[in-house]
Amino acid sequence: MANPTPYSHLYRLGLVLITGLVLFMMIMIAQTPASWNYEVWYRGDALVEMKSIPIVYGGNESCVECHADEDEEMAEYAHKLLNCEGCHGPLTLHVQDGEKTADAVGKSDWQCLNCHQAQISNPLDYPQFPGDISKHENIKKNTLCVKCHAPHDPALSEEDEDEAMFEF
Amino acid sequence: MRELIPGVNVTDINDIDSKSRREFVKKALSGSALMLLVYAPGAAALHGRGTGWKQMSTEHRYAYVIDIHACIGWGGCIRACKQENHVPDNMFRTWLERYVITEDGEVYVDSPDGGLKGFPPLNDEIQSKTSISFFVPKMCNHCEHPPCVQVCPVGATFKSPEGFVLIDHAHCIGCAYCVQACPYGARFYNTEIGKSDKCSWCYHRVQDGKSPVCVEACPTGARKFGDLLDPDSDVAKILAGRQWAVLKPEVFTSPTCFYISLPHEVV
To answer: Cα separation of B68 and B66, whole Å?
Structure first.
């Protein structure tokens, strides 16, 4: 029987290293997604998948498809810059099981005060409640803003203001 | 040579003649040059690997502009973002901060529930000594050199050709390394899906020709989004006015989310 070569331990080590390397390469190739972008280092299909995420908020142009009349009125009003879904809830969720989902301004002032509660952090020229206190001194704690201010067209003319003062 | 210690020869600096000194300088310089030749291209190749804009779109390059003066802190943008992107409670892709700077120069910042339901009025004590107060919308800055992209071990987050910094949730392993890397705290670990999450500038909406939902929801125009390559876009016009600032310029991330009328106290 021939003597074993004195380098056999090195050969064995080499074999282990090569097997390890081949295994590593095989796993790496199998695990790399097919659309991998080697230059920027990401999965190309990710962009396609992200593009297909369904949209929840349709924007004002989607509301007009059903509510064309309101849209025409709004163009004249102080709240024309508002996005409908901000108060009425997103397009795909604003009506659920035949019921409106958003908090109606007729039930609470939350939506109004959310923007118009006086805050020193707001811009100076921004309309804030109570603002000119003499105009609001008659109101009670549970008086809803919408009693005088129409939610779509909240600005009052001077005549409207005089009338509103006697309503309480 | 001098024999200071018996048996040991020490070279005195005064004994070195100018020729050998010149030789030494020459060798040192050529050695450094060789080092630079070998090192510099290697470093350049490694630097910015997987980060920054390697494939830049020639059609669109988006940017975001936030006007601090216009923000009224109503929180509609936050609510819209939550619904559009299905962000779980107590996690925010974008949030509002209220800064209060007193006459003594003290800075107070609060963000009750991320500004989701707006802000309660300030208490009288702070209000009486306030010098200036304002709202600051915060979100992912979609940096040109995003540190979050650099640290991702699997390439799940990347800079898209149009400038979006996005997360590929199918590829993300949820190690949250990127959450720690972001200097703006804009990323969070979404416990519902077990992955990192962040603002995507509503990639799905923008590709459909719409604005990001926070921009859509903003009633005062404090948030604007547009294409820098289109000279007629709001954003391109605002940036042409040169009056912008970015958050933390000292970290060299080159944000593409720009602020107008940004007080220097904001971090």
So the answer is: 6
Contact (CB<8Å) B170/A49: yes
pLDDT at position A134 over 80: no
Chain B residues close to A43, C-beta within 8 Å: 155-156, 168, 170-171
pLDDT band at residue B1 under the 50/70/90 scheme: low
Query: Quick one: pLDDT at residue B49?
Result: 47
Determine whether the interchain pair A57/B84 forms a contact, defined as Cβ–Cβ distance below 8 Å. Answer: yes
Identity at B100, one-letter amino acid code? V
pLDDT at B199 over 70: yes
Interface mutation target, options B204, B206, B225, chain A, most CBs of A under 10 Å: B204
CA separation for the pair A158, B142 (Å, rounded): 48
pLDDT at B212 over 50: yes
Residue B139 near residue B257 (C-beta atoms within 8 A): yes
Question: Which CATH number describes the domain made up of B62-146+171-260?
Answer: 3.30.70.20
Q: ipTM of this model?
A: 0.85
Within an 8 Å CB–CB cutoff, is residue B196 touching chain A?
no
- Residue A77: CB atoms within 10 A of its CB come to 15
